[in-house]
Amino acid sequence: MIRRRVWKYLTSTMADRQLCSAGNFEADPPKDVIRVNWAFPQKKNDPEYVDISRSQFTSPVRQLRTLFAQELLENFGVQAASNAVIRFFKPQRTVNIYDASKATFTWDAEELTPIPVPKSLSSFISDTVEDEDLVDLVVSADLADLPPMGDVLTELPALQRYQKIVQTHGPSPSAAAKSNEYSKLQKESATAIHDGRLSRVAPPLEIFHPIFRLFLRLLRDPSHQPSPSDILAIQELFHYNRNIVAESTRNSKLLPLFAKLLGCTIAQYVNPDGTTPDAMHIISINGMTLATLVLELKEELGDGGCDPSTLAGHSMRCTWIQKDVLSLTACFFCGGPWITVMGAVITNKVIVQRLTDMMWLAESSTEEAGRVYRAARVFSALRLSLSKLKEYYEGIAENDKIPPLIDSSHPRFYPYPTHYIDRLTSEKVEFTYVKPLEQSDNCVTFLARSNIARDSLVVKFVSSYGVEVHDLLAKKGYAPRLRYHGSLDDDDEGDELLSERPDSALERGIGQPPDGLFVGPLKMVVMDFITTPPSPKTVQPSGPHRRQVEEVLRILHRAGYVFGDLRSPNVLIDIQGKVKFIDFNWTGRYNVGVQDDGDLVPEDLQRQINEFAAKANGGGDGEMAPAIEERYAHYPYNINKAIKWHADVGPMKPIRPAHDWFMVEKLWSDEL
Fold first, then answer.
1. Where are the beta strands (DSSP E) in 615-663?
2. Exposed e or buried b for every residue in 332-349, given b needs 16+ CB within 10 A?
3. Model confidence over 522-569: pLDDT tens digits?
4. What angle (nearest 5°) sits at the alpha carbon of residue 331, between those of residues 415 and 377?
5. Chain centre to alpha carbon of residue 437
6. The pTM is what?
7. Which residues are paired to 350 by β-bridges?
8. Are residues 174 and 163 in contact, defined by beta-carbon separation less than 8 angstroms?
9. Which residues fall within 8 angstroms of residue 368, CB to CB, at 6 or more apart?
């Protein structure tokens, strides 16, 4: 089947070429962009295309090697051993893209003319690029032994990072958790624990496995109630924690209590390298050993010269990298009467995050029923989560479709959601992750490809998103189509249990979170991928692009919306020179009844805003601005203060139209 990305005539009478993708049609690329159909015979795939500038088309082909290295990675999942081994050929005979896609088609090396690296594509294929049905170019390359994903120039592939982690044993957990050694280990990616210390921040655990969402959901679900036996076991734990005893004596009493509370066997195991966590829960499936729970127990908080929660994280890492032990995903530590539950995964890094606050599990007053009840709910939620985790591993053992861990496309390195329900068609769309779209370890935005249509998608995970604003600009052609916004599991009802809604917050007596503090559940956002020029020099931001940005702001501000994070990473220029806004995390309504100081907002636009404000307060026909009492967009509590924002911008402050116009002056400049 010909990929929809290949350009072709839709009818013989159509004057303009158009691209068919998910039922939408787009115009031809601009005249200064050349579309080249190319094939890669070493992988039997349909022909692909690449857009290059006219200057690139007339330059030596050696300058295209970096571009095609990235294209090979994204479209065929392979990496060239080096850019120098990428070679270009012109087909000596006319080959139709439809013929080239047939399973019986083969390329004959004798029918391919090498293009010398000092020569340009224009000197070889100018005669074929005018016909979009023809294969213009054939590419070959010597491939690297290990095909990675991501940036072929700068990124260490996920599989290589993972392999380096499991091959680097480091000191024992008890030594690694001491502050001096801990600090050293955090500075090396192979030994670091991504737990927030020394800026080792990672995405939320919830996106990597549904067990974490289940645990957090149960904690907030009022229908999840502990049993009387849970209450009695917790009371026994509280009663015992009054004692101050030696660690060995204490553990012999606590482990049976924890086993009763969690409904599983908990015992001490010695790892193959001789290290020994205080206790673990081990399951064995088809000869595989899986540690699903690790416990670190200390006589008192601080004993041993380290934070026991840090010790638990290093114990998990140490257990993971054993030759015969597979990954675990939950743990907790106990320091005297203090306890906390943590979760952990290993992707291309070790991620450890606290799932509960530290809880005091001892009798310190005559009235401890509330504390006993809350602790019993935590342990019963953990018990159910561990049971579901075992079912998950049993399902994996029976699944013969799980891919081997041989390259960086393995699911281990990506979030677990792999489908969404399209907002327009209501169809289920399955997709495969291609690579992260950022180099940072806390990246939550990924390039993906739909499995059937092969459309390029952007998948991101956020707690706040301006769906209305995104839809408004998409309709105007200034944003990609928003395909999905919702739960990670197609379960918006379940997400309500993870949301800090005003009613549930008030029931707990904590009131409504202030503006700028987004404490709702994580949502998955899926949108179309915007194809930008292969080189930043292909399309330079100019006056027409600025005018497009200004038009977008007029559209937003007239409708009562603000954007907030108006910086160059969030404003793209596509291959047709059209401006596209892509990040709507901060967007929302603003108070039209308040006028900004100064003259940043254009005078004519301010008059229109004032008219809308009058309608909001007194009625009138036509489009209505938001009522004054609505909640408005605010900057997040953790806004990056290093960026040179407007003077009135700050954490949890209202986002105003004047702020957007201020940032226009700095867009695409080095001032930010």
1. none
2. bbbbbbbbbbbbbbbbbb
3. 999 999 999 888 755 445 678 899 999 999 999 999 999 999 999 989
4. 95
5. 8
6. 0.73
7. 193, 346
8. no
9. 238
